[in-house]
Amino acid sequence: MKANSLVIGFISGFAVAGVGVLLSTPASGKEVRTNIKETKDETVLLLKDVQQAVIQLKNDCISAANISKAQVNLFIKDAKELIQEWNKDAKQHTEAIQVQIKDVETAISELEAAISPTPAK
Question: What is the rounded CA–CA span in Å between residue 50 and residue 68?
Fold first, then answer.
């Protein structure tokens, strides 16, 4: 859409400039026609160059989007794998900590039983 606006802007600018030149030129009609022909040829070449540049830009954008999409998908896959590995490692550590907590609780219970006074007979 912006490329169309750019092309329309160029064409409009050339048309306005052409009318301005025709109205303010001190040259003869033959000279003006020659200048218009030369300017027309230059303008056509310029527009072709702009068109090719816009097409190249469009192709580059499409290519960059495809490459970016592939890279983002690869990054997401790698991130998921890393998160799964971290969850697996964290689960193992959590289980080990829970076993240690139970061992500590058992040791505390044993100490409490050993420390508590025995009832007198």
Answer: 26
